[in-house]
From TrEMBL:
Residues 1-66 are annotated as: Disordered. It comes from Luteimicrobium subarcticum. Residues 37-46 have a biased composition (Pro residues). Keywords: Membrane, Transmembrane, Transmembrane helix. This is RHS repeat-associated protein.
């Protein structure tokens, strides 16, 4: 092990045997065997020798910006909660195992390092080390300023005040007496003293509970169904109260400490002046306790933690964990000054460091500089300066961003690197009340998004600057007559910006059991769920897990469990069941699909997949770097290998694809980055693209190899330069191509595009499309009309009016030129979102007439009125023959489309995601998307912007795309700025009209910026999309969509699905409803922040079960049951760091999600 650069010699950590003790101990230390005992009865107290006044101490003074922001007192602004804004740093560690971030309001350095976790239902066992630079040294088990999250979780109880410590370093004062206690402002939680003298802290919006004994010691952390983790303590003289074991428990799980499974065990050593110090943590799996996944620590004689060895020691089967070791140095006050990581070399840590991250502080323990370094690379430095008004951050490129901070260290205003300002106001409960966008710069009024709340601090309404608003109702009344179930913090009804309504029904524990469309004249769709009871007799699950899900058509999907793990998913026939197998750490080791094809998985002890073996014997092998990044993967199907390299910041710097001849394109792609992590160059297309950015890190130039960009004015003809311009919100308003051709975008006050105009190099308008969002004079969240001022094949000025059902699915598009209808499309759906009919009339580009569809219980088309043959599917839900066209497909054991008609496909990995070859055409893709293709001597490539959107294509010469609001290519310019021609589409993306020029006809990126494989068939990530049907040819592999086949949730006017796994509002560009989209998750999905200001919470990830996505295997609520929550209350339960920036309209999302959550 490398020596720590510290004044004392660290203890060496043994890495050659499965031991929880170091090779030697500091002076005065002795080994201790941990034995579980009863929960301590002495009063709990925090580990630090002195604790300051927390932000939750009940202070509800003026919410205005304070003119003099004092430096925080010790522990005053520590921890991790949603009212803070953080900057996060990467120093290795995959799967969320290491978080390093600086609170820009208080200057606190917050570090969280995962000790261990076990998957399972409810709140599964998880434990972490926590560091707050503004904490004071303690005598806790971790030593110095470090603490374990369980050490930091407890109740400090007096007769009139109970202080709740949340596991991150934050603490909050509840006031009262007896059984009546009042929460402080900013905390969405309740405190209850139970009749037996114990205590319960319940998070209002999630239903999670922390149970404490009468002395304030943590005993259980559970979900709303009382399923979760139990805490056992070590009783040993003066060491009474130190944690010994953590175990998953709960009704129906069927496990206990005697099982020897699913628990985290902690070992200690004692010192003459310290009762016990954390020595090791081990994830115990299996009755043999074979020592897998052990994390060991080395210390200085003063008990300061100096080394963390995050590697499994050899187990009985000599299996080694891939990971890295890190050493820590400190200043005289115990603050971390440097973390150094060392990769593993064989079975021992290398003597050569990999990365370092160093910190400096001012006298108030605030971070003033963070320096990230790696041998052979330029160091990356971020600096912080503090004043009475707030904090100024100098980014690694030397540009400054200023945060105005109030007395609670909340960000109230941001002035970015271009001096553009955005601001926030808060309620007395620290919820965001208003956010004002960048048009407030220079004293402008700005555009304001507002959020309203009820007396329980539930968000009840969010309104965009243009007026579109969504509502959530928490009590029964005129607008919600059926709202009689659930607690006061669960939305009973919602109303979306178009006036569509939904109601929700909950069981006694607060689990959703039914969601119904209650819109007058709406679909009346109802989705319902049955759940496991307290004894596991319904479907073998833990209490509250979904046993059945019934879709809008009344078709039932069944779920069965084994000790809380999903064992069998049985969809409606004719789909076959999918079964799952698990290891002792509850990781999926085998999946047998509906076709009976089995895939097996192996893992390292960071839970990275090492191998995937398919039923036909083919195998994918993956190798991981010590820092958690993927190093390489190999597929035995073709022998192809892909290797990766990364820089100091974890950015991918190289990808090498090696394939046999005829199985794709072999190439090495290299990328470079600036100090902020912006990509500067990429040669993915076969030649180098160069990217230039403004001070706020938005791309301003993309230059092709050999090209030049002007210092002012337009790019010259054939210059290979594309310029980008932005408004005060950082949204694109213009892109200028070689020869002076351009695309200009006008936006409304909510940031939505209202007009997109393209001009050739001579200034002639060649494409022009407008959008409006108002219906009957009221703003909505949906496009109501599209005006084709100039669009290929459409009468100039024609207006298309869109109609939607109460699920926001497109039902009609009527295109009129004046009062004359030029074209129209009508669509009908069943209650599960399957298209049941389509009617075309007029100048649609296709044959006019109606087609009706018959749908089976599995949401599959079984016949249509236009059939020429029969429709067939396999038991995994994959279309094998289209009954209209006769097109056939075959699939392999990895659920990939092996053939499409007579074209054979070669893929890398599972599914269709990485396609190497189709027929005689080879492909090369990167994480940004498809980069190039090659068929004999015919080659194409697609330059992309930093977000992965194709902006042009090159065949024999470059051509530049004009894009509409959803990213569809509606026109092409040549390299001289001349108009080459354009495209138009039906609402769901069928070809309508196409110019005849070769530059237009040879282009294959078209609708929704997707790759058109054959006419009207698009390859979109994991699946193939048939635009003539408005549906995918394969079942949803992720379980995110309400209907497993429908494209874009039936709304292609607003949504796209580039990955083939979930729909997104591509055109929004950030400013539309980021706050509203967050509101959806918080108000309606039960994932809201414990600490308020969390409206931009992670959203509703019970999607598959709640949104009706009955497929996808382990999706939605099912996945939630397999993933554990952290003990650290604030962060674990939805407290979203950095929300202040999100509220400025930098998030995606949309108002439609508000109602869609139910």
């Amino acid at each position: 092990m490398p020596a720590a650069s510290s004044t004392a010699t660290p203890v060496r950590v043994r890495t050659a045997a499965a031991s929880t003790q170091p090779e030697s101990l500091p002076p005065g230390a002795k080994k201790v065997k941990t034995v579980p005992g009863p929960t301590p009865t002495r009063p709990w107290s925090p580990p630090a020798s002195a604790m300051g006044s927390g932000l939750g101490s009940g202070d509800s003074a003026s919410e205005a910006v304070q003119p003099n922001v004092a430096a925080p007192a010790p522990d005053e602004a520590a921890g991790d909660n949603g009212s803070y804004t953080f900057q996060q740093f990467w120093a290795g560690g995959g799967n969320g195992e290491l978080a390093i971030k600086v609170n820009v309001g208080s200057g606190n350095l917050f570090i969280k390092e995962l000790l261990g976790a076990v998957a399972g239902p409810g709140v599964a066992p998880s434990a972490s080390l926590v560091f707050n630079s503004q904490s004071v040294p303690s005598k806790g088990a971790a030593g110095g300023i470090w603490a374990t999250d369980w050490d930091l979780t407890g109740l400090d109880i007096t007769s009139t005040k109970v202080t709740f410590y949340d596991g991150t370093g934050e603490h909050w004062d509840f006031t009262g007496s007896g059984t009546s206690w009042t929460a402080p402002a900013g905390v969405n939680a309740s405190l209850k003293k139970n009749s037996d003298g114990t205590w319960t802290v319940k998070y209002n919006r999630t239903g999670q509970k922390l149970q404490f004994n009468s002395s304030g010691w943590l005993t259980n952390h559970t979900d709303r169904n009382d399923v979760g983790s139990e805490y056992k303590y070590w009783k040993g003289g003066a060491a009474d109260g130190l944690s010994g074991y953590i175990l998953q428990s709960g009704p129906g799980v069927g496990q206990n400490f005697a099982d020897g499974k699913d628990d985290l065990e902690f070992g200690y050593q004692t010192f003459a002046d310290h009762p016990a110090a954390l020595l090791a943590s081990t994830t115990q799996v299996g009755a043999s306790h074979n020592g897998l996944d052990t994390v060991e620590y080395a210390r200085q004689p003063d008990n300061t933690l100096t080394s963390v060895n995050g590697h499994v020691l050899p187990s009985v089967n000599n299996y080694h964990r891939s990971g890295e070791q890190w050493t820590v140095t400190y200043d005289t006050q115990g603050h971390i000054t440097q973390i150094t990581t060392y990769p593993y070399a064989g079975t021992q840590p290398s003597s050569t460091p990999d990365r370092t991250i160093a910190f400096t502080y001012d006298s108030a323990n605030r971070v003033t500089k963070v320096t990230q370094s790696r041998s052979g690379e330029t160091s990356v430095v971020t600096a912080y300066a503090y004043s009475s008004a707030g904090t100024t951050v100098t980014d690694p490129r030397g540009n400054t961003i200023t945060y105005d901070v109030d007395s609670k260290y909340r960000v109230t205003k941001v002035t970015d690197q271009l001096s553009q300002t955005r601001s926030l106001t808060y309620t007395a409960n620290s919820d965001v009340a208003t956010s004002t966008d960048g048009f407030s710069t220079g004293g402008g009024a700005g555009h304001v998004t507002t959020t309203s709340y009820d007396s329980n601090n539930n968000a009840t309404k969010v309104a965009l600057p243009t007026g579109a608003a969504a509502q959530a109702i928490y009590t029964s009344g005129t607008n919600c007559p059926a709202g009689t179930t659930g607690d006061a913090y669960q939305a009973k009804c919602t109303i979306d910006p178009s006036g569509n309504k939904r109601s929700a029904t909950y069981d006694a524990a607060g689990n959703l059991t039914k969601s119904t469309d209650t819109t007058s004249g709406g679909t009346a769709e109802s989705i319902s769920y049955t759940r496991e009871n307290g004894n596991g007799t319904v479907c073998g699950g833990a209490q509250g897990q979904v046993c059945t899900a019934t879709d809008g058509n009344g078709k039932v999907t069944k779920y069965a469990y084994d000790h809380g793990n999903l064992a069998t998913l049985t969809p409606p026939a004719p789909l076959g069941p999918t079964t799952y197998q698990y290891d002792e750490r509850n990781r999926v080791t085998g999946v047998t699909d509906g076709n009976g094809h089995a895939t097996t998985y192996t893992y390292d002890n960071f839970n990275n997949i090492l191998t995937m073996k398919f039923a036909n014997g083919q195998k994918i092998t993956q190798v991981w770097n010590a820092d958690g990044t993927l190093a390489s993967k190999t597929d035995t199907r073709t022998g192809a290998t892909i290797t990766y390299s990364y820089n100091l910041l974890g950015k991918q710097t190289a990808q090498t694809v090696s394939t046999p001849s005829g199985s794709g394109i072999s190439a090495t792609v290299t990328m470079t980055y600036d100090a902020n992590g912006n990509m500067l160059t990429s040669d993915a297309t076969g030649s180098t693209l160069t990217y230039t950015y403004d001070k706020t890190n938005k791309v301003t130039q993309i230059r092709e190899a050999g090209g030049t960009c002007p210092s002012s004015g337009n790019p010259a003809a054939n210059s290979g330069c594309t310029l980008f311009k932005y408004d005060s919100n950082g949204q694109e308003i213009a892109r200028i191509f070689p020869g002076g051709a351009r695309q200009d975008t006008t936006r409304d006050a909510s940031g939505r595009p209202t007009r997109i105009t393209a001009k050739d190099g001579g200034g002639t308008v060649v494409a022009d499309v407008g959008y409006a969002y108002s219906s009957s004079g009221a703003d909505t969240d949906l496009i109501q009309t599209r005006t084709s001022y100039i669009e290929q094949g459409i009468p100039a000025g024609a207006v298309t009016t869109y109609s939607y059902d109460s699920k926001s699915r497109l039902t009609k598009a009527v295109e009129k030129s004046g009062s004359t209808t030029n074209a129209s499309w009508a669509y009908a759906y069943d209650k599960s979102g399957n298209r049941t009919s389509q009617t075309r009339s007029g100048n649609t580009g296709s044959t006019s007439g109606s087609t009706t569809y018959t749908i089976n219980a599995a949401n599959q088309i079984t016949s249509t009125s236009a059939d020429t043959t029969t429709w067939t599917y396999d038991a995994a839900g994959e279309l094998t023959r289209n009954g209209i066209t006769g097109q056939t497909y075959t699939y392999g054991d990895r659920l990939e489309a092996a053939t499409s008609g007579t074209t054979a496909n070669t893929v890398f990995g599972p599914g269709n995601g990485t396609r190497l070859q189709a027929g005689t055409t080879g492909f090369l893709s990167t994480s940004a998307g498809l980069a190039r293709s090659l068929n004999g001597t015919t080659a194409y490539n697609w330059p992309r912007d930093p977000n992965g959107t194709a902006i042009s294509y090159n065949g024999t010469s470059p051509h530049y795309y004009v894009l509409d609001a959803t990213g569809s290519v509606i026109g092409i310019f040549s390299g001289t700025g001349a108009w080459s021609g354009g495209y138009s589409y039906t609402p769901f993306g069928e070809r309508r009209f196409t110019s005849t020029g070769s530059a237009v006809t040879s282009n294959t990126v078209r609708f929704a910026n997707g790759y058109e494989d054959t006419v009207n068939i698009y390859k979109l990530g994991a699946r193939y999309y048939d635009a003539t049907l408005g549906s995918f040819t394969q079942f949803d592999p992720a379980g995110h969509e309400a209907n497993p086949y429908a494209y874009a949730s039936g709304n292609p006017v607003m949504l796209v699905d580039p990955s083939g796994q979930f729909s997104i509002a591509n055109f929004v560009g950030g400013a539309v409803g980021g706050v509203v989209g967050g509101f959806v998750g918080t108000a309606l999905c039960g994932t809201a922040a414990v600490f308020t200001a969390g409206l931009a919470s992670v959203g509703c990830f019970i999607g598959a079960a709640v949104g009706g996505g009955l497929g996808g295997g382990i999706g939605g609520a099912i996945t939630a049951g397999l993933s554990g929550g952290s003990l650290a209350g604030g962060a674990a339960d939805g407290a979203v760091s950095g929300f202040a920036l999100g509220a400025f309209g930098l998030l995606g999302g949309g108002l439609a999600g508000l109602a869609g959550a139910l």
